[in-house]
Amino acid sequence: MRRVLFLLFDVLLFYASIVFSSYVRFGYHSHKVDFASVAWVLSAVLLVFITYSLDLYDFSIQKTYSTIVMSTVLVNVLTFVIAMSICFWFRSFSTPRSIFMLAFLVNTVTQLMFRFLVFTATKQKAENVLVVADSIEDGFRIGHALMSSNPRVNVAYLTSESELGISELRKYNAVFMSDRVSPQWKNRTAQAALDAGITVNLVPESFDVISRPTKVSSYGDLMVFTSAPLYIPRRYRLVKRVMDLVCAIVLLAIASPAMIILSIVIPLESSGSALYSQERVGLNGKIFRVHKFRSMRSDAEQKTGAILATAHDPRVTRVGRFIRATRLDELPQLFNVLIGDMSLVGPRPERPGFVTEFEKQIPGYGYRHIVKPGVTGYAQVSGFYTTDAADKLRYDLWYIRNYHPYQDIKLLLKTIIVVLTPLKARGVLSAIPSDMVAATQETTLTK
Known about the structure:
This protein is about 50% helix and about 10% strand. With about 450 residues, the chain is α/β, with parallel strands linked by helices.
């Protein structure tokens, strides 16, 4: 109910900003706006759709103020740009651009003020959580993720197969179980926590995502969960391909000036071509060449061979750090999308050598190749470059298992926010920071 009220408030605020801007610009009787027209209704629906897709109506998701600002600005930019385009094509909807510009400013500022108030009022309180993990490093992996979403969380770690009584468990608001602990210990601790009235959160194994039930059946008195094979239905594959072609053409047209500038700037800082291509593993394990703007020195792997980039990789150039942070290095992959080797959204393609190792180490890793790789993906929107391959795989498998074209639209919108968040562009952690390892050895870890 609360989401419906906020949705209606956004629509009223949108209309009010247009009326206010008309009055300021021309006087109350100078320009009448027919809000019942199809064009204005479509504009309001678009506003709500983008806002909903960016999870701005979901107050259970903890957001930083910078994310709220970027999301709100993006909602209004897209809404008013498309509304102005509708105005251009449908003269019956004619509204002066000055009204649009003023309404954009009014609506953006008032929405930001409203959302700051709401998210501050619903901000998560300090919580005490227990992380049940296989080791200190495993516990840090989960604890770090929890503190990233809620800096006020206090994390305690249980890293040996000991038993906790109900009275001890009641000190915590929630229990988080690692996917790496033994099934027996996981079951005992989860049952004890549920008996104590504590919420249990499980980090799933890859197979848990793959085998997620798609149907519940009864055979006599026997309940059976049915898991269908992982795939994207044919009707969705056609829609996905059309979306890829249309969006890739539009994005190339918009990004062409930036691509021309990068083609000139990159060789000025470090010798070599601005572009480079690498072999990657795509649909059904097929090898293809992916194209990117070069972000490292041209001799980056001459001595080391193929290795993953680290958080502060010295091989990355100054221009490279910028284009990685803003994801501009991925722009040439739009040509891969046009060719058909890639999709706009999907699991990120990896190099053959890394895939061979990951398939040995991570069960179910090969399932990510049953769809085309993407320029962006669920793992890239939800995680960091520091997110390891096993955690990214869970996101990729979930994306495939629950695929719908709306998922792609939502992830593309969220990718814009990720582009504006440089923290997401770090490489893999080369090691766990020593100060954090020391902190995990204590009973409670706070950020």
